[in-house]
Amino acid sequence: MGRGGICDQLAGGFHRYATDREWRIPHFEKMLSDNGLLLEIYAREYARTGKPESARVARATAEFLLAELRGAEGAFRSAIDAETDGEEGAFYVWSRAELDAALGAEDAEWAAPLLGYAGEPFFAGQRYVLHLPKPVEQLARERRMTPAALLEELAPLRARLLAARAGRPRPLSDDKLLADWNGLAIAGLATAGRLLGEPRYVESAAAAASFLLPALRPDDGPLRRSWRGGRTGVAAQLADYAGLLYGLVALHEATGEARWLDEAVRLAGEMEERLRAPGGGYFTAAAAPDLLVRVREVYDGAAPAANPLAGLALLELAERTGEERFAAAAAGIVRSFAGQLARAPEGTSTLALLARRLARGGGRPAAA
Questions:
Q1: Region 193-210: what's the mean pLDDT?
Q2: What's the average model confidence in pLDDT over 310-315?
Q3: Closest by CA position to 322, among listed 256, 267, 367
Q4: In the chain, where are the structural domains located?
Q5: What's the sign of the alpha-carbon dihedral 268, 273, 277, 280?
Q6: Any idea of the CA torsion for 199, 205, 211, 217, to the nearest 10 degrees?
Q7: How many helices (H) does the chain have, and how many strands (E)?
Q8: 65-99 pLDDT, tens per residue?
Q9: What is the pTM of this model?
Q10: Cα–Cα dist 205/70, whole Å
């Protein structure tokens, strides 16, 4: 994925999904939720393996979030559209003539096998989506270079392509600030900053949380789902509590600042009061006169299911506060959805992760 066209090889960040098995041709929308989650994954993979390529992709994703999705308030916009003037991918794709014009014929020829446009055009019959056809280590070895030296030589060419692309009409952005997606971005940035030694990422996560928490609680009331231009949206749902909780505990781990733990405890209490379901787990939405049925969601979709994501955050709270009630609530989520986990494990992977962490002693106080 990090080498493919699904990843923007110039500005960083991931498009929504790939339409081919080689990961070369994406649906070009860029979503905050995807990039927050993938940032955390690549940062954790680097911490686990020490592979420089994982760190490179993580940093590029973080820089994309800060450059293109961060709003003036410090929090993060929801998405960048796939289309420009009704044409899918127009901002991102290249003809060979455009590449030659941006780089010069000689540099364009040198970069062709590195950026995936040496063969026939494969997008809409006449254009390319830039990608790395082989791992960086292999590309470097074929040229008798180190990976670092190869990336250093590519950097000015990428910069020239990025400058040329900047002159094109840009796709529109969805500038709503969503609680749940911002929580995932806060978690990704805080985790990446901590694991990659990048304090700037942690600071940006803290800035987003500092704006969102009061903005989404007008008059210090219950959490709201969204904010745009000074106006808040509907009441928060479980995904909003779960996402923000997940971000706040990651921010506390990265900074050690008590205020983030205090905010997480407050949010968990509000979630418990408004959404707790008898028998374990949480309803998607609070009770309302016009709500005929209250449902509980456990199946993963484009983002982790809200119930097990909340459970993962609650386990972290239990470990950090020493309060057993948070671990008990997380265990209740697993018990209440055990049947779904047994019947459809492929659709409940976040629940499986929560169950595994509980089985391994997750939720015990950090001192223990």
A1: 99
A2: 98
A3: 367
A4: 17-174, 276-368
A5: positive
A6: -140
A7: 14, 10
A8: 999 999 999 999 999 999 999 999 999 999 999 99
A9: 0.96
A10: 10
